[in-house]
Amino acid sequence: MAVTRQEAIEHGQRNYRAFHGRILATLLPDHSGEWAVLRDEQVIGLYATLDEALQVGATDHVDGRFSIQEVKEEQPIDLGWFSHVL
Q1: pLDDT digit string, tens, across residues 17-26
Q2: Residue 40 CA to chain centroid, in angstroms?
Q3: How many other CB atoms sit within 10 Å of the CB of residue 25?
Q4: Within 10 A of 16 (CB to CB), how many other CB atoms are there?
Q5: pLDDT single digits (tens) 36-48
Q6: 3-state secondary structure of 71
Q7: Could you tell me which of 57, 69, 59, 66 has the C-alpha nearest to residue 25?
Q8: Alpha-carbon gap, residue 35 to 30, rounded angstroms
Q9: pLDDT digits (tens, 9 = 90+) for 26-39
Q10: Spatial CB neighbours of 16, under 8 Å, sequence gap ≥ 6
Q11: How far apart are CA 38 and CA 45, in angstroms?
């Protein structure tokens, strides 16, 4: 059964926080540039391309409860001129 839009958003937010809070640092040394498929705040697979990760996620998790994150060093977000306003 598919999840509601709100449930999907909340699941994605939990995965995002888990990924950047505790998972990313463990993956960077050996998996930089790969794509992680997450479900329930756990990595369930690592893939070389985004297309491959999307296909596996959509095929294996038809309920929509998965998200994908790229394994890469975090870059600061530049909001342009607004990020420099005091």
Answers
A1: 999 999 999 9
A2: 11
A3: 9
A4: 14
A5: 999 999 999 999 9
A6: coil
A7: 69
A8: 12
A9: 999 999 999 999 99
A10: 67, 69
A11: 7
* Alpha helix positions (H), 1-86: 5-18, 24-31, 50-60
Position 84: which residue type? H
Nearest partner of 14 among 42, 46, 54, 35, judged by Cα: 42
Rounded CA gap, 74 and 18, in Å? 14
Long-range contacts of the stretch 55-58 (C-beta < 8 A, 24+): none
Of 3 and 78, the structure prediction assigns the larger pLDDT to 3
Query: Cβ distance 63 to 3 under 8 Å?
Result: yes
Nearest residue to 41 via CA among 64, 62, 12, 63: 12
